[in-house]
Design a protein that fits this description.
About 45% of the residues lie in helices and about 20% in strands. The protein is of the alpha+beta class and about 475 residues long.
Length: about 475
């Protein structure tokens, strides 16, 4: 079943069906229990009425048991003998004995005892003995279900058993029943109504769930259709429709559009990168080819230093492009602990051909430490110094200091500086603000872009600001070791 609507409708129907079945069973059980308790109460009333008569020594054949068909009565003595039954009772079960024929009892009420008519022995005062009174047990009766046949009609009954003691001290048990036919009819009617209503309710639930799910998923289908169209047309400027609601589907649409925006920007950046890289590579390659062709035709005219310079430039540009490709691929920086001051001193010591000497202000060994890739951080320092050397008039300085939670590296120069409106643009790839500068002197415009990418991937940041009245100040912050 591939349709979400079908699965949702089926799931909701199954859940509702289980809930209704459970609720229906619980309701039937409660209804049956209540009706059974009512029948038991009626049986108890009938049993206590008969027991009260026995306690008053009413003869067995004179017992009044009300409507014998509705309340069949059976009376047993201490030995379990049946001593009385209600009129027309032909069979019974559920009372402990199925006998319905009364048997004589040695102490039947209304009959004289062998010694009952004998005058009492003379005593000191000559008075006779008091026969006493019987009583009905006040304990809760015992209940049970059974059947009884009265005047040829068999039915189910709820029986209550109550004990009574007559004046002769004989304990008798009265079993009186109340019919369960009303309970059975009521339970059967409710069960039939539930079974008849269940399919209708389930059909309604399935239909409503199908319609609601269809309406809820309609925006998702619109998103899917638009995404398919975008994929087919490769037009990343298109966007999926967004609803004004704040539900999950609306958030999905907004997230999808944000993803499309990021993808469009990434593709555009990649296209610009390829175009700019091709343009940057074309010039040194063309120059090198020209020099080699001239050298091949006229060896005496071969400009070896120029060919070497073009080759070095190609090598540097290829290395920059390779590093950017690795960074774009998500290459994770190293986790070595580095002394940032020592790294700066080592990088400056290798710059023997700089036009302007670099003034270094870094702590002695044991200064602020950072975590990362030594090669990539050295590349950042080198790119910042290269940029400062390219723009400085007479001074370039680098300083390192520790701050809470990390370290800061500052590179300043006394050049023309960076206009405030361009201070973010200088970190874009292949961007050079001084378009009038000769290409060979101006670089390819990748150094600052590489520096910021490396800083961000190390959890840091790289910013630029003015250095007083003249020049630029590049500040690199890196977090300390965790």
């Amino acid at each position: 079943m591939r349709s979400v609507r079908a699965r949702a409708a089926l799931g909701a129907t199954v859940v509702v069906a289980l809930a209704l079945v459970a609720a229906g069973l619980a309701a039937l059980l409660v209804l049956r229990a209540n009706l059974t308790d009512q029948a038991g109460l009626q049986a108890e009333v009938a049993a206590r009425e008969a027991a009260g008569q026995l306690a008053l020594d009413v003869p067995y054949d004179k017992l009044k048991t009300g409507d014998e068909e509705d309340h069949p009565v059976q009376v047993t003595d201490e030995d379990g003998r049946v001593v009385a039954v209600s009129k027309d009772l032909e069979a019974i079960s559920g009372t402990g004995t199925d006998r319905v024929t009364p048997q004589p009892s040695p102490a039947s009420p209304g009959k004289g005892d062998d010694d009952g008519d004998r005058e009492g022995d003379d005593d000191d005062d000559g008075a006779g003995a008091d026969p006493g009174r019987g009583e009905v047990s006040t304990d809760d009766p015992d209940f049970g279900n059974g059947t009884a046949t009265v005047d040829g009609e068999s039915a189910d009954y709820r029986f209550a058993s109550v004990e009574a003691t007559n004046s002769a001290g004989l304990t008798l048990t009265v079993h009186a029943g109340a019919p369960l036919a009303a309970e059975q009819r009521a339970v059967a009617s409710v069960r039939a109504a539930m079974l008849a209503a269940l399919p209708v309710v389930l059909l309604v639930v399935a239909g409503v769930t199908w319609l609601v799910t269809r309406r809820a998923l309609r925006p998702v289908e619109d998103i899917r259709r638009e995404m398919a169209a975008i994929t087919a047309s490769e037009d990343l400027s298109r966007r999926v429709p967004e609803s004004a609601s704040r539900d999950e589907v609306a958030r999905l649409a907004r997230t999808t559009n944000e993803t499309l925006t990021a993808l469009e920007a990434s593709v555009d950046r990649q296209r610009r990168f390829v175009a700019d890289a091709s343009h940057e590579l074309r010039s040194p390659i063309a120059s090198l080819r020209t020099q080699l062709e001239v050298g091949a035709a006229h060896p005496e005219l071969l400009d070896v230093p120029g060919a070497v310079a073009d080759t070095v430039r190609l090598q540097v540009l290829a290395a920059d492009l390779l590093l950017l490709a690795r960074l774009d691929a998500g290459e994770r920086p190293g986790s070595a602990r580095l002394d940032l001051g020592a790294l700066v001193r080592a990088e400056v010591s290798q710059r023997t051909g700089d036009r302007i000497a670099v003034a270094v202000s870094v702590p002695e060994p044991g200064g602020p430490e950072v975590t990362g890739s030594r090669g990539q951080l050295a590349r950042v320092i080198g790119n910042l110094l290269d940029n400062a050397e390219r723009h400085a008039v007479s001074s370039v300085a680098v300083a390192v200091r520790g701050i809470r939670g990390g370290a800061v590296l500052v590179v300043t120069d006394d050049g023309a500086g960076v206009p405030e409106a361009e201070r973010e643009r200088v970190f874009e790839r292949f961007v050079r603000l001084d378009d009038a500068r000769a290409r060979d002197d101006g670089g390819a415009g990748l150094g600052l872009a590489i520096a910021r990418d490396v800083a961000v991937r190390h959890g840091g940041r790289l910013t630029v600001a003015g250095a007083g009245e003249r020049g630029a100040r590049f500040e690199l912050w890196l977090p300390g070791p965790r």
